[in-house]
Specification:
Layout lengths: L18 H10 L1 H12 L3 H27 L5 H20 L8 H19 L5 H24 L5 H16 L13 H25 L7 H22 L2 H11 L5 H11 L1 H18 L9 H25 L5 H12 L1 H6 L2 H26 L3
Helix pairs in contact: 1-4, 1-8, 2-3, 2-4, 2-8, 2-12, 3-5, 3-7, 4-5, 5-6, 6-7, 8-9, 8-10, 8-12, 9-16, 11-13, 12-13, 13-14, 13-16, 14-16
């Protein structure tokens, strides 16, 4: 958080993220890398739909683990071992993602069921009656969805798509079917945990692009990669220049019974487009760097423009749900960044990346000036 030095020891302050949780996040972010590879390999409507369905299901269970360790800190040896087993399940899920609509569906389904069972078991070890009551209602929904994804491995074609779609919808409708107020949110821990996953995802997207460059590095390709890094840094700035601290304050100020809904909306639903935008941007950068000095293909230009616009739209919703800042500059940035697809199509991929970076930097500068006038900091 802004102005604080996080502590990541295994027995850290319960209001901070532990080293084991950070380790868990590092494994989970491998799913982001795999989704990026899936989309870069098939940058079509079909590929994008696969990414949406897979990420929608996987992000729900990651969020479940974030709520889990927020409610039940993993301080006991038994709980730490369960969390490590959960990491193994997420690794299996991530390994299967590139072929989840092919031969990898069974591995994905088994890994997802393992993640879900461990999540439920871990939660049921909580001592607070309110948490046990909430999990008694949530657990069956999660297990049903995990079962659907496991059954999907034994289907083909439209049936598998339907089962993944039903799982996606059921997961994200579940909060409206159970009472949320039984959960007690530790705001500092919750905000920091999600900030870390966003930070790691941004960094991993840069690494994934770098790995894909190969050994042929003309000056133009290096420049394109550096512009891509600058774009990732600008996106980092938009969130970490005080947005996280303001979000924590907003959660702290909220009545206890309303806090779980704010957390769910801002860090559950809204983080889908924020992190999904990073996946799309990374896939676009991978494709752009192959033919950096030529007019971009339609898929490359749209992935770059659409990914940044999706990330910005998520940040607009983030502010809107938490009431933590003005929206109009970020709304304007969302529109302008999407229009950069025209530059990519007519000029080159490197020109589009440079323009995206320039637009976001101007937006950051404008927000900074506005904050000084209105007292936001």
């Amino acid at each position: 958080m802004k102005g604080r030095t996080p502590s990541y020891s295994a027995t850290a302050d319960p209001n901070r993220v532990s080293s084991l949780e950070l380790f868990f996040d590092l494994v989970f972010v491998f799913t982001i890398t795999q989704l990026t590879s899936l989309l870069a390999r098939d940058p079509s409507i079909t590929g994008l739909a696969q990414v949406v369905l897979v990420f929608g299901n996987v992000w729900w269970m990651y969020g479940g683990y974030a709520w889990l360790t927020n409610a039940v800190p993993p301080v006991e040896v038994g709980l730490r071992l369960l969390l490590l087993l959960g990491m193994g399940g997420f690794l299996l899920v991530a390994l299967a993602i590139p072929t989840v609509f092919g031969g990898g569906a069974l591995a994905f389904g088994i890994g997802y069921m393992l993640v879900t069972l461990i999540h439920t078991w871990f939660f049921l070890r909580a001592s607070q009656q309110s948490i046990l009551s909430a999990m008694a209602r949530l657990g069956p929904f999660n297990l049903v969805t995990a079962g659907l994804l496991l059954v999907a491995a034994f289907t083909n074609g439209p049936a598998r798509w339907i089962l993944f779609s039903v799982g996606f919808v059921l997961h994200w409708l579940t909060p409206y079917l159970i009472q949320q107020s039984n959960f007690r949110i530790r705001s500092a821990h919750f905000v920091e945990r999600h900030g870390l996953i966003l930070l790691i995802a941004l960094g991993e997207s840069v690494v994934a692009v770098g790995i894909g460059l190969g050994t042929n590095l003309p000056a133009g390709r290096i420049m394109a990669a550096l512009l891509g890094l600058g774009l990732a840094a600008a996106l980092w700035w938009l969130y970490f220049e005080g947005e996280d601290a303001r979000a924590e304050d907003a959660l702290e100020r909220a009545p206890q019974e309303r806090r779980p809904w704010l957390a769910l909306n801002a860090f559950g639903y809204v983080f889908l487009p924020i992190l999904g935008g990073i996946v799309v941007i990374a896939a676009g950068l991978k494709l752009a760097l192959v033919h950096y000095d030529e007019p971009a293909t339609g898929s490359t230009a749209l992935l770059l423009a659409g990914g940044v616009a999706l990330y910005l739209a998520g940040l607009v919703l983030f502010r809107w749900f938490l009431h933590i800042g003005p929206l109009w500059i970020r709304l304007l940035l969302t529109v302008l960044t999407f229009l950069t697809a025209i530059v990519g199509l007519r000029v080159s991929a490197i020109a589009q990346i440079g323009l995206l970076l320039a637009i976001v930097v101007v937006g950051i500068t404008g927000e900074s000036l506005l904050a000084r006038r209105r007292g936001f900091s």
